[in-house]
Amino acid sequence: MSSGGKETIHGQRPIQILQTARQDLLELKSEQLIYKAALNLLLELAKKESEYAPKSANQWIAEIARGISNWPRQWSREKKQRGKNPLWRAPRESIQRIAALGSMRRDAILPPQVDARVVLCELLNMFPSLAFPNRLEMYSYIQFGVRPLLYGILRREFLQPRDVAVCANIQCREFFEIERAGQRFCNGECSQRQRQREYWQSRGKRARKKRLAAQRKA
User: Of 132, 106, 92, whose CA–CA distance to 53 is shortest?
Assistant: First the structure.
């Protein structure tokens, strides 16, 4: 994958910088599952205590545990390619702790949300918050994948929560930030498509009922 940006040097005309990030396709698919599970876990924590679903949370934790089991190997490979330690970390203690939480039963004393918070904190601590003096150094940080940036976004949502939901369009189901009360869709197009789908489904039921009624009369 590639990303572009402009850098101004000593007041001269901006130059275009193209950065290519190398990442295995299968690993990228695995990362999507891990990150989706982490976002779902974050959504569970945003719910009221009475609405929190421990069973669903445990499923997301188990999904995360399965995915990050390969992170130490990926970290070692990146270290070899870079010639130095990557700026993110993959401590086995953290990975083992998440794996244990994904397989253990709910604690009878502690609130069920504790496990979810522990998992998210362990994940975020593997990607420390960093500041870069220029884009070149930042691009070097994500040269082997944008995973650090994704968990930077997750950290912001965890520490400064905003209303986030899953699009109600059954063919979308993407995450989005709620901008107004009662918002159910990520954009107007998704809203229109879902409402059209529901309308035709409802109209089709009425048409079938009329057809069956006519057949019975005949």
Answer: 106
Long-range contacts formed by 25-28: CB under 8 A, 24+ apart = 27/70, 27/74, 27/145, 28/145
Q: What pTM was estimated for this model as a whole? A: 0.66
Residues whose CB is less than 8 angstroms from the CB of residue 119 and which lie 6 or more positions away in sequence, other chains included: 41, 61, 64, 98, 101, 102
Query: Cα angle vertex 130, ends 129, 133, to 5°?
Result: 155
Count of structural domains, the chain? 2
Beta bridge partners of 177: 164
Task: Verify that 145 and 190 share a domain, yes or no.
Answer: no
- Domain span including residue 27: 2-161
- The answer on 125 and 183 residing in a single domain is no
DSSP 21: -
**Three-class SS of residue 85?**
coil
110 shares a domain with 50: yes
Same domain flag for 185 and 80: no
Q: Which two tokens stand for residue 31?
A: 């990362």
Supply 104's token pair.
């253990």
99 and 199 fall within a common domain: no
d(CA 56, CA 166): 15
Nearest to 134 by CA among 24, 3, 5: 5
**Among candidate residues 64, 65, 122, 115, the one with its CA nearest the CA of residue 89:** 122
Two tokens, residue 29? 């698919």
Tokens of 41: 């876990």
Q: Are 28 and 136 part of one and the same domain? A: yes
Residue-wise pLDDT for 50-86, tens only, equals 889 999 999 999 999 999 999 999 999 999 999 999 9
